[in-house]
Input
Amino acid sequence: MMKANKKTLIITSIVTMLPVLIGIICWNRLPDVMATHFGFNNEANGFSSKAFAVFGLPLILLAVLWVGAFVTAHDPKRQNISPKMFSLMLWIAPVISLVAAATIYPVNLGYELDIAFFSELLLGLMFIIIGNYLPKARQNYTIGINLAGYLWMICGILMILISLTRFVPAEWLVGIFLIMVLVPCIYSFWLHAEKAL
Output
């Protein structure tokens, strides 16, 4: 599977590392200590050295990309993973890398940016896209939870609505994330318990 997607792996790896090039170009304008994490109020609440922000974060995401590809490619039921689903999975790390760069660099260069709105909107779109693919994937050990697919699509739409309208506080996103993770896990455990009886 990895050999068949060698070209995509190379492209996604390059895209994941693109923020490093941007960081090098802007190196002299960036502060020695950079804001790398932000709260719902757009205020920085986490900081890293310039070297880690520019080089470390993309390298971590590159490792996540390759580990995820390796684990999925060696899934005991990998024959059930469609090429489109595998390709989509490979693009998650590059997208996160670009989104992180698009928020971290402007803020540290002195530009004003509504990070909460930007992040919620993109996360919502990402979950809708992934959720749309999950129900189409056949059962395997890595990908393919139908309930999670539909749930992620609904939660993705909610995230976008929250980011656009602010009809509820942004803190509600924590609850949405918990629902996305816990409900499929509880449902899977229940199905396993039913089969065991």
